[in-house]
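Researcher: Next sequence.
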Amino acid sequence: MGTVINQWNESAKTYSEFESASRYSIYCREFIDSHFKMMQGLKALDAGCGNGVFTNILSKNGGNIIGCDGSDELLKIAKENYPQYQFDTVDLLAGLPYENMEFDMVFCNLVLMDIDPINSVIVEFNRVLKMDGTFFFSIIHPAFYHASWEKNEHGIIDGKKVKGYITPFSVIQNAPWGETAHYHRPISYYFNLVSAAGFRLTKMFEPSVYEDTKIPDIPLYMFAEFTKNENIYAKGR
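Model: Next structure:
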């Protein structure tokens, strides 16, 4: 994961500036704030916490939140903005430095599509979660991300043309904040992997497009919430 971490170290400042004004980020902050309103007494891990925005939101909603990320530069921003919270430098692909069944929730926002492989990461999330704990993740919606917006005869954006979806692939994308890796996988890949790791799907959200210039019936992001119903770590031992 070294190359990916280096990419995010280089992009940390620009990304944080972009993220603070992004319409999606604003929408996502409002959604998470509302969805996880009752965090009192819960301990959670913000895995891939980046600049700490969601660590702050979940903490303000009453949770005891630990943020971790592999990028020291993103964590530097997080610690500067939110010095009251614990932030740990952790390469998710190298395992988590936390106790078995330590957390009530693992929160992972826009991270899984940026790292590979994710099998061991999901297993580690199971290990550190308590039974009946919550695993929540979001990703860019894989069904529509690598597709071009199309305009009708009036010049109005009215759809997307999807040329491929099932086959996983990786790309280096030139994002507004710099070059970062992206790993495309179909939704079934994520859900089957998470299910095999001892989780049961409880909720899934595909929010409508929030930009006035695009049709509202194509989701750009996907949120999924699972409950740990099998301790595969203990079973494996």
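Model: Helices lie at 2-21, 23-35, 53-60, 72-81, 119-128, 187-196, 232-236. DSSP finds seven helices and eleven strands in the chain.
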